[in-house]
Amino acid sequence: MFALCIESSHARGMGHFYRALNLAESLAKAGLPYTFYLNDHAPSRQILVERGVPHRIVDLQDFTGNWEASLIQQDGITLWLNDRLDTDDRHAEKVKATGIPLVTFDDRGTGAALADLHIAALAFDAQEQLAGAKLLRGSDYLILSPQISDYTRLRKQLSSILVTLGGSDTYGVTVKVVQLLKEMNLTATVVVGPAFMHMDMLDEVLTEGFTLKRGVPSMIEEFYRHDLAITGGGITPFEANASGLPCVAIANELFEIPVGMELQRLGGSLFAGHHESLSSPLFGTDLPLEQMSQSGMRNIGLQGTQRVIGALQVLVK
Q1: What is the CA radius of gyration of the chain?
Q2: pTM to 2 decimals?
Q3: Domains 2-144+303-316 and 147-299 fall in the same CATH topology
């Protein structure tokens, strides 16, 4: 039994949560049982309930008790995975004391040093030193939606724009993007996630021609309907590019700047910079969409999840 320990919130965002859902789907197909341990975040828990995903709500900030050891024993956990960005060494020590392997994803916290395996698929700053006994780094280890292979197509001209800035869009960048598109005389379909908390501001700027969607059943299916996506700097633009959808990527956090630069280097995206420095025009209307679409599909593979699962299985043999 694998433990997927996830932090999801308005402040943290929901990218870690959605990545874990993608991994869980592939674990199930491989016959590897799992359960989620998640902080008390209502939108994320609702998704788990609706999908019938086994889970427990835990207090990730409790470092005095030893809930980790109790759950490892109760649930028969054989491997612990953290996808929380900043794990604490006090937590990691409790997991390691039980004798099971510890895995972490894109972890900048003190707990990463105790990990048996650190999978850093979004680490593209060559100067950044990442901790862990073994490090798997780069886009070869991206965990992307298995739906992508069924929804790929080549884009050749711009007729429909999608705006999607994550499950929570902590800083309300969606509002700024809509304003910039209006200044460019463009409209778009705007998708907001289940933890989006800026509806009042968004309602003020949305005008005729914009379509608002909330809680779409599948972002991969939504990608298929559009020719350009404006996204954050997490997993979303990689999934979009892999499906042939070019992106304009915006860094919501400073650590996403190297991600945006890597996306641009791979050819499927234009990096627009950090959200605080956005200005009009957001992008040129002469984007080489066909070239970008081809580059995304060619340079971002769908084998990362299987590579990750293979590395996990080695730890529990």
Answers
A1: 19
A2: 0.91
A3: yes
